[in-house]
Amino acid sequence: MKTVRHFACANPRPAQAVNHHGSAVLQALEQRHPALAAEFTALFSYPTDDGMVSLVALGSEMRIESAKDGDQVSLCLRHGDAVERRALFRLDRHQSYHAQVFRLAAVFLDEIRPMLLERHGLAPDTPLLGGWRCGTRPELVDEPLVFTLPRVLCRIDAATCRLRYVESEHCPAVDPDLFEQARELPPLPPLQVTRRQELPECVDYVDGLVDLLRAIAPDSEEKVVLARAVKLKLKTPVAPNALLRIVAPPRAGANYEFVFRWDGGDAWVGISPETLVRKEAGEVVVEPLAGTRKGSASSSKSERYRQELLNDGKEREEHETAAGMFYDNLASVCLPGSLTVRASRNVIDLGYVQHLKSVIGGQLKPGMNIFDVLAAVYPPATIWGKPLDLGGERIRQFELIDRGFFSGGLGYLTLGDDANFALAIRTARVAGHEVQVYAGSGIVQGADPYREWLETSNKMAPFLLNQFVALPEAPEPAWP
């Protein structure tokens, strides 16, 4: 590893929300170092007991890359143009795709960690940022997961700003004054939408749900999570960081906020309210979110929807099933007797929707790393369904989009095996003039197809219904 520079200072803007300061720092870095931004750009803001933390990253010093070709998966550690370690595995089509990929990644991480710590002299708290795609159709996934050790990393909380960068010919000196010089972001321009396309159209989505409900036995406890998307064509391109500031709440709250982009490609922007898994010092926590009602700016309506959510049998059953599956799966990797339910069916109000949330935690068994945990808990019922095998079959039969990173995971892991991953919901893909927004809904026997359509629309509201987005008039939907 080349020379690693470190700098720390008091946060020069303690009155500014940490997530907004992180966005301003990212914008400043992108403007000063466009070549690094083309390699890798990330902003990952997450809530803690002490407030928000923002990680801002640029450039790719090292990368854990994956490639899938048929039944073969290769993992490699790339350092610049050189490959330092490579492993090739073959998948078993009769076993869970995600569990196999994560177990392979667990072995690979254990192999490369000593090399990164000892040969390259990296600290245990060094983070790799990235995530994995949701493989609803594994045959279409050519890069299952990717994690990057950035050339430039900033960590910002309410009290302190820290800068770490790898000094080399690819990464010139980074000015530590950027924390002071990163001002409030300029006023956001409105997004002029020239075309809106529903993927699939409403009639086709409802017809598909009708067919799915016919396939589910009347007395079945089966659940299937089906997703759809809305594609917006913009008059002018939108920067991913600007889109995040458009859709994120004015003040930092319980949401994750993120922007991830590799090699100047499509960017993934999200404001997820759901912790998939968090790991620190051997403690593992999951926070399943399932069960939904719309939100409202009116306190009386919001309370009414809250009571409906708490008293609706379908929503409670959906949540208890998801939380129960998380508990059972987490128990397989935690020490016996350590697993506890710390909160159950709490209501979180995001303004545009309300959800039921539980918190489950335990101590990880010795010898296991974060990928072993992911192999046990992903995909959760909250984005897939139950039973898992049948849910996957139903998704492949009735879902008409490619999810990409939507409903996968995005966040970071450290070389010391701490980790924090958001489930990538409330997420959009940004590609130049196009923004594609995703949402899903859990379908059980007795579901109302039109109500499920409205639920997915409510979940997309931050991207589609805000003061900055001027949508073209859409025709009234035709119902069968």
UniProtKB/TrEMBL annotation:
<dbReference type="Pfam" id="PF00425">
    <property type="entry name" value="Chorismate_bind"/>
</dbReference>
<feature type="domain" description="Chorismate-utilising enzyme C-terminal">
    <location>
        <begin position="205"/>
        <end position="459"/>
    </location>
</feature>
<protein>
    <recommendedName>
        <fullName>Chorismate-utilising enzyme C-terminal domain-containing protein</fullName>
    </recommendedName>
</protein>
<dbReference type="InterPro" id="IPR019999">
    <property type="entry name" value="Anth_synth_I-like"/>
</dbReference>
<dbReference type="InterPro" id="IPR005801">
    <property type="entry name" value="ADC_synthase"/>
</dbReference>
<dbReference type="InterPro" id="IPR015890">
    <property type="entry name" value="Chorismate_C"/>
</dbReference>
